[in-house]
Amino acid sequence: MTAAAILTKACARLTANGVEEPDLNAQWLLADALGLERLNLLADRSIPVPPAAAKRFEKTLKLKESGLPLAYILGWQNFRGLRIGVDERVLVPRPETEELAALAADHLRPLSGRAAALDYGAGSGAIGLWLAHTFPALTVTAAEISAKALACARGNARALGLSGRMNFIKTASLTGVKGPFDVIVSNPPYIPSAVIPGLSPEVQSEPLVALDGGGDGLDVARMLVKLAPGRLKKGGALILELGADQAKELLAGLDAAVWTDKKIFKDLNGLERFFHAVKR
Ligand SMILES: C[S@@+](CC[C@H](N)C(=O)[O-])C[C@H]1O[C@@H](n2cnc3c(N)ncnc32)[C@H](O)[C@@H]1O
Question: Is 93 in the pocket of ligand 1 (CB under 6 A)?
């Protein structure tokens, strides 16, 4: 069978199973089974698919039909050009989090010499690893409550040759981290507990600890706001990714004697998602 014929059938199966973006998912999986880049596959859909590749594809298509995130099946997710290894131990880094990382980079860029950043709730390590990759003199601490996630982040640091400038800390609170940092960046769990059961099966296959932010979703974010001043340098920034409207709520309660340069940034969908405040 040609790639085109296989893609048509696969797309119909994924659609029937309620999978979003069925064509994209089918293309990624077939390209992976063939050992091709997706765009190379799209450039010539008339290529024949050998039986071994068709078998590999069928196996991964079944996983996708069952609701597993594409990145878990492929084993990686692109994050601002870095290939970040992901599996069931960690949340799949989202496009919005690429925007969060860019905000942290904006804060670090004008600083001369060595700087220190904390990626709190590091998961796969995507944010901290990309910052370390982008700023060759930067030291990054990746803090995480989950030992399994921390192991994944460590593995990614090794694979990317960044272990030398990364520290890994297992902790459930900022009290476990010393500092001082030029920036604390975090994409904490921020979904209110009661919302979790209504999420798609795909999202629910990600670790609960990466999603559940407690009653109103702000448990970890509030802890960060409370303890960050003790771990930031003067002029250091706390930059958080939150759910729509949560950033505004958190910013409203800030102590003006401690924080300045309070800002909310919108994500690419126009939603007010990013909290930014600087320690006086
Ligand atoms: C939304 S995920 C973000 C993962 C990764 N930073 C990203 O953006 O893709 C939140 C992460 O915070 C971790 N986490 C949850 N509660 C925490 C806590 N109290 N202290 C430290 N890490 C925590 C979770 O294990 C998870 O890896």
Answer: yes
* pLDDT band at residue 249 using 50, 70 and 90 as cut-offs: very high
The string of pLDDT tens digits covering residues 167-206 is 999 999 999 999 999 999 999 999 999 999 999 999 999 9
CATH number of residue 107's parent domain: 3.40.50.150
The response to whether residue 217 sits with its C-beta less than 6 Å from ligand 1 reads no
Say whether 207 sits in a helix, a strand or coil.
coil
Q: What tens digit of pLDDT does each residue of 140-169 get? A: 999 999 999 999 999 999 999 999 999 999
Do 97 and 169 share a domain, yes or no? Answer: yes
3-state helix, strand, coil in the chain (%, to 5): 45, 20, 30
- In this prediction, residue 113 carries a pLDDT of 76
> Where in the sequence is the domain holding 212, given as residue range(s)?
77-279
Q: Give the number of domains in the chain.
A: 2
- DSSP state, residue 200: -
Residue 27 forms part of a structural domain? yes
- What type of residue sits at position 195? V
For ligand 1, pick from 220, 240, 246, 267 the residue to mutate: most ligand atoms within 8 Å of CB: 220
Give this prediction's pTM. 0.96
128 lines ligand 1 (CB under 6 A): no
Nearest CA to ligand 1 atom 24: 210
54-88 tens-digit pLDDT: 999 999 999 999 999 999 999 999 999 999 999 99
Instruction: Say how many Å lie between the CA of residue 90 and the centre of ligand 1.
Output: 8
Contact criterion met (CB below 8 Å) for 156 and 84: yes
* d(CA 31, ligand 1 centre) in Å: 31
Note whether residue 72 is domain-resident.
Answer: no
